[in-house]
Write a structure and sequence with these properties.
By secondary structure, the protein is α/β, with parallel strands linked by helices. About 50% of the residues lie in helices and about 15% in strands. The N and C termini lie far apart (about 50 Å).
């Protein structure tokens, strides 16, 4: 009986510690899917690169590319560079008007996954960030990701909101990382701040 009581006294703190750790990881978004991104660093403009000439803006942070409008050649080059997931965050009418080819069809023909999350400053929500996080969680460790809009402004915006809401980064640091990835319009900065604070 004494041994049993000592075991209970020893085990209870361990169980509480594990439960607290689980709650912390869940709250900060440190789920198994986030590991595919590797360490989040700082994005910088890609200039001297064949891929850069095929987008009207291109930034990169490790395995993640942030871009403006793509061309067919740009998407083919992205595939050659190891991109396995393309996330388009342009609004649907704008996507139809500004991309003169069937992007989903081409991306899927090339063997990449295509995810469409239409975003505008007015419509941007925590639900969009949830969809974005779910898409990232499907990636293998060795695959790269391309997030694009029309200028990389919304791509940088959804990235900033993801870093704050899912990875527990401070709002200030997340906005800095978002700006490095192309976030540059006050309307989208305001939308990101609103979503982070929801």
């Amino acid at each position: 009986m004494r041994i049993r009581n000592e075991l209970i006294c020893w085990c209870e703190p361990m169980v509480l510690c594990c439960a607290a750790l689980f709650l912390f990881l869940s709250a900060t978004g440190c789920q198994s899917g986030d590991a595919a991104l590797g360490e989040v660093g700082h994005a910088s403009a890609v200039k001297d690169d064949m891929m850069a000439s095929e987008f009207n803006h291109l930034f990169r942070d490790g395995d993640v590319y942030f871009a403006g409008l793509p061309t067919e050649v740009g998407l083919r080059t992205a595939k050659e560079r190891g991109v396995g997931l393309v996330i388009n965050v342009i609004s649907e009418p704008e996507s139809k008007m500004r991309i003169p080819f069937d992007e989903r069809k081409l991306v899927e023909q090339l063997g990449m996954e295509y995810v469409f999350i239409p975003v505008t400053p007015g419509s941007f929500s925590s639900g969009d960030v949830d969809k974005f996080a779910a898409a990232l969680s499907t990636m293998d460790d060795d695959e790269k990701i391309l997030i694009h809009c029309a200028s990389s402004n919304r791509a940088g915006g959804i990235w900033a909101a993801y870093l704050a809401r899912k990875l527990g980064m401070s709002e200030e640091e997340a906005l800095t990382r978002g700006r490095e990835a192309g976030l540059n319009r006050e309307s989208m900065v305001g939308a990101v701040m609103r979503v982070i604070e929801e």
